[in-house]
Amino acid sequence: MDRQKNKNRILFAEARTDLALEAGERLQDDNAVPQGLRVETLQCEDADAVITRVHVESGEAARRMKKPMGTYITIEAPTLAGEDEGYHQTVSGLLSRQIRELLPGAERTELLVVGLGNRAVTADALGPKTIDHLAVNRHILPFYKEEMKKKPFTVLSAIEPGVMAKTGIETAQVVQSITRSLEPDAVLVLDSLAARSIHRLYTTIQISNTGIAPGSGVGNHRNAIDSQTLGVPVIAVGIPMVVDAATIVRDALNDGGRHPGEGAERKAAACLEELQNMYVTTKEIDEMTERLSFTLSEAINGLM
Amino acid sequence: MDRQKNKNRILFAEARTDLALEAGERLQDDNAVPQGLRVETLQCEDADAVITRVHVESGEAARRMKKPMGTYITIEAPTLAGEDEGYHQTVSGLLSRQIRELLPGAERTELLVVGLGNRAVTADALGPKTIDHLAVNRHILPFYKEEMKKKPFTVLSAIEPGVMAKTGIETAQVVQSITRSLEPDAVLVLDSLAARSIHRLYTTIQISNTGIAPGSGVGNHRNAIDSQTLGVPVIAVGIPMVVDAATIVRDALNDGGRHPGEGAERKAAACLEELQNMYVTTKEIDEMTERLSFTLSEAINGLM
Amino acid sequence: MDRQKNKNRILFAEARTDLALEAGERLQDDNAVPQGLRVETLQCEDADAVITRVHVESGEAARRMKKPMGTYITIEAPTLAGEDEGYHQTVSGLLSRQIRELLPGAERTELLVVGLGNRAVTADALGPKTIDHLAVNRHILPFYKEEMKKKPFTVLSAIEPGVMAKTGIETAQVVQSITRSLEPDAVLVLDSLAARSIHRLYTTIQISNTGIAPGSGVGNHRNAIDSQTLGVPVIAVGIPMVVDAATIVRDALNDGGRHPGEGAERKAAACLEELQNMYVTTKEIDEMTERLSFTLSEAINGLM
Amino acid sequence: MDRQKNKNRILFAEARTDLALEAGERLQDDNAVPQGLRVETLQCEDADAVITRVHVESGEAARRMKKPMGTYITIEAPTLAGEDEGYHQTVSGLLSRQIRELLPGAERTELLVVGLGNRAVTADALGPKTIDHLAVNRHILPFYKEEMKKKPFTVLSAIEPGVMAKTGIETAQVVQSITRSLEPDAVLVLDSLAARSIHRLYTTIQISNTGIAPGSGVGNHRNAIDSQTLGVPVIAVGIPMVVDAATIVRDALNDGGRHPGEGAERKAAACLEELQNMYVTTKEIDEMTERLSFTLSEAINGLM
Questions:
Q1: Hey, what's the torsion of the CAs at A202, A208, A211, A214, to 10 degrees?
Q2: Residue in C closest to D123 by C-alpha
Q3: Which residues of B touch A271 (CB under 8 A)?
Q4: What is this structure's pTM?
């Protein structure tokens, strides 16, 4: 009984989001911003976009944010869900610059791009589909002129490691194997994310230098893919394609402004439990995955 | 202000479901079963399935159910979301028999199958994907032996009319044009449905003789596709692939057992409005659409 | 025996091509240009493209060309098989102008676009895939301002009729039904073509005002889709995606410059017979279908 | 000039086939069967299939066959291009047994399955599509009961390494990395093949213990994937999905029974050169790839 009560409390407390920005907003709403959490905001007027940097700089901040220490850059581009190609190009350029800032500043960078997720699951296909459009050049490097190799440029390779349910192998193990063999200067990991708020779907890009933590992303990769496990800097780029269904209901319940009575709580908790593994999205998700995979690939191709 | 209150009330009242079974359950829960609503239930022990027939026999019942008068047969097959091929074959057989009962009882039946929905939108692709697996035979009929033509059999043809946003043409107009030209004995319309309850996803099949009403289905066809508009009997077959997101939140709020205060109501109403055009589903939807399209096509091929 | 000889002769004689340009070249090679066959050529220097108009103006010319009387415009764009987006845009513009010239010159044109072929067969998918990218506007016409409706503009709708093996219905019957119901000013039919020569794959666009003749195209639509059967002008646009395998072998054999001996002829004829329903293409066909579907759709969207 | 002559000779001589069976037949036709080439044939009457084992047992045989030394098993199943599910199951069973014979005979076998080829190129997609249907179990092994682990069984994992043009990485390097990390007992490599003869398309399965040689398969993997490079036994399974276009023309020319004159030879050689990278196939290739991917996956799942 007490155990059930605890479980109910956990169900109500856990607002799942992959966005550091939303995790920070939640702490602000609760007047609970910890030391070591620092936020900078930059309005890009010409691009109709806002860039926010969330720096998680203490263990306490990381614990409260439920995110590893590091830098999380968010591009909020409200019309990214639209069809305007020019706007998508502008955002690709913005994204390209944000990625470059997190990359090691060498003259020449060998970058291994990893498209996480399951191509056969629409909500999880953003990573693999982005890989499809990359202009990889690692294999044609031997044919480059000597002069060209001297100037700063990016060498691209890409893999789609698949998901454990389909390969029988931990995604992290596949990525580690390839990384050890290729020895790139950095790894760029692409993933579909889950947001807390509906209006973030398709319109927010998160770039971080913390890699992918266990249990994050739509596909829930269990083992970390980060600089510690791979031995090179790992940059993660993701876009929210779904909202966790339980999170939406929880937020709606909390919007009532009072804690519900115990009977109501029990019923609501049952509802929340049933909602596990369910997500909320729109009928546009197939089209958005297609379109945003180009926005991401253009940004990465633009690194060269 | 009063207008907003009204709107809030409507938002709270409208539990959207394409399933007559759920609409009937709601009326029962509210102790509001009207005259002219009749329900029969049959347990198929050997198939681990329940067949329910909802007869909407009065205008009052139709108004309260928000469904046209007619017969709605529901096959509840709880393990249909699983991979057991034998079970899918059993359910295909059950479905085949239910469809046949609603078909005109002629010796030979020319049946035009219509796969409603948008192939490129996973949540709306069940109809078009089912069409892909049909063993159509109308075009090879001239090569059939005379003897064969005499015994009772089914002549199948199939079309995928597309969706208005992609064709610029009302779906109903496309279906009418083809129906007038082919003059089939009956039209069988396939569609993805929206349920009210999560546990109905992928596990319930609805067969009705009322056709498709405006605003129903995941794709929200605006004009009716029914026996009145087509001039021949129209049987509709559908499976819930999504739950309306607002419906889930509304049900969770109502589970609190009391009407919320006005402030809370306003907030919750805002949340419900934001949820319009959002749906709840699972990561399995791509795979389920693929698998259930075979379950449906096998049932239709089994009519021959 | 004589029958076999005849058959051999036919097998050697029939060089199958959907391109009037190639049919004309063959007659020129054989010094057999009939009266009523007139050819104009225009070099588009800025676009690196050649536009040729073949006018088939007599019954004799039609018989020898194995093509209906009418005008066949060919855009030869040698680098269309490449990735240069700017070049594809230029060719879309050229194509747009050629289509407009064949359209009835009214102030406002209602155009029904028909994507022929089978989406599930790569070699035959160009039509359906082009339809996917069209900016249809017929359904939003009621929301247009009065002023706009007065200036010359194009009203677009689109259908994908499917193929008979999948629908059980003659493609021509589906197109006729919809055309009768919509009453457009013209019908634009898109199709994958078969060329005689490999270097035409993906690089040649044919526009004609003769519609689609029985047996042409990759999908071999059996009944005519033309102005006579539809009652409105029919413009056909197609791109060669394959070469008939028998044609390639036949041409190689004929390149020997002598008629082979009877034994050799028999063997070669057996080989040609085995090659029926086989086609020659490249590994790039999937990618080319995707890319060229955008080149065609941009041209059609550019009519508005 | 002489160089051109040589090149012409090579063009005429090289009949490209991935099937050891066809390479052996060619040597037989030329009365040039070398020592160390041994062929056994077994008629499976109940399965309407012929199993042939070609043993390449000497360096001379390998050189003449243009195939590495080893065992090549061929299942010729003439109706495998058809839809009969029962027949496909029978052939899956036959294939399962042939694979098992080449596997190391341990009590428990960890098998890594590699789906070679490019999912986006129909002619090259058989490997990746087969991977999609595998019942991998390596990741759930920790949850198996102890008793079960003791009896002989197969542990399956699977990867899709992609193609170099899309990843920038040699396919062989990807496979090596994963193999080193997983340390399986054997690797099973799946690939689309090119045959010499049209009637082998979709109806012949080759199983060999020689791995994949450079330049073989539709995708032309340049580096070897074999027991020497991977350090464990490598079994390759493939089905011809295309015929090399130049091979067909060459065979047709040779069927003439005489060597052509020099002028004719020059023309024919030019034709053959133009045909490089072209292949011959049928409109059914998309459907066949889908269906045969299930036949292969059932055989592999049947190993467990």
A1: -60
A2: C283
A3: 248, 251-252, 255
A4: 0.92
